[in-house]
Every structure is written in C-alpha cells, then in structure tokens.
Amino acid sequence: MGRTVIGAWYQVIQVATQRRSRQVKPPRKKRPISPKAVAVAFPKTSFFKQVYQIVRTIPPGKVLTYGQIATILGTPFMARQVGWAMHGCPPGLPWQRVVGTGGRILINSLSLGEGPILQRRLLEMEGVKFVRDHVDMEAHQFRPGTRFSRSK
Predict the structure, then answer these.
(1) pLDDT > 70? residue 142
(2) What pLDDT, in 10s, does the model give residues 3-48?
(3) Main-chain phi, psi angles of 141, to 5 degrees
C-alpha cells in the first residue's frame, strides 16, 4: 500500500513540474547593436558640436525645439541628448532660441535662478511673440532649408 501512495505522489509531482515547465518562458535574447546605430550615436564629429552648429544658424526672432534639432541631425529619438548638449552650451551660443515641445520655455544652465524669465526676456528682445506661457510657434518656428538635410 505504501508503494501505491508514493507512486501516486510521484505522478502528481511529475505532472505539476511538466505544467510548470510549460509556463516558464525562455529568457529573452539580447539584440545586438547594429553598426548603423553605433555610427549615429558616436559620429566622427561630436554630437554636441553638431547641436551647437545648428543652434548658431537659428536667426534672431526664430526658435527650434529640442526634437527638431534631433530630427535635423537624423536622430529624432535623441531630443533629450540635445537637452544635455544645451545644458552645457559654450558662451556666446544663442541658447534662448531652443525651446521645448510646443514652444515651452525650459531652464538652461546659463539661466540660473530666473531661468524661464531670462529666456523669455531674451526672446522678447528678439521680437518673439508669446501666447500665454508658450512661444507662438506658427509665427516664430525656424524651418531650415536643405542645408541640413542628410538625404544625399
């Protein structure tokens, strides 16, 4: 009688482990980083320098968003990295001409304390109009020509 009980428990345990093994998913395979992604992330010239080059071309009275700059560089998913670049921008760069999505005023490293107020004042001195707390993007959004396109 003892052997039948042990045999029955053995079968129950065996069935339970089989069910459990079907439920456990195999671990995900890590995708290798493509060479194209590496080339985009680490170009021959510094990403930050490319950002600064574009910001220098924004004329007075016009603005670009972080996302637009990233898109111009061919990396539309790197808007936050543009923000990092602008956080430590060199002196003399017109940092106030870079705004957030929809024309939102964002704080920059050069604008300590009164950051948003300073950025707004500098933009108003350049003739940029505001709708409530946002830049009027329809009137002041900079649309660069084919100079920055990477299609060729």
Answers:
(1) yes
(2) 566 666 667 677 766 665 555 555 666 555 555 555 555 555 688 9
(3) -75, 125
Q: Where are the alpha helices (DSSP H) in the chain?
A: 2-23, 35-41, 47-56, 66-72, 79-87, 115-125, 137-140
The DSSP bridge pattern shows strands 130-131 and 134-135 to be antiparallel
- How many Cα atoms occupy the beta-carbon half-sphere of 11 within 13 Å? 5
The lowest-confidence range among 116-120, 129-133, 139-143 is 116-120
Amino acid identity at 18: Q
Which pair of structure tokens corresponds to residue 65? 């968003």
Coil, strand or helix: which one is 65?
strand
Could you tell me if 49 and 81 are in contact, meaning their C-beta atoms sit under 8 angstroms apart?
Answer: no
Question: In a 3-state reduction of DSSP, which class is residue 126?
Answer: coil
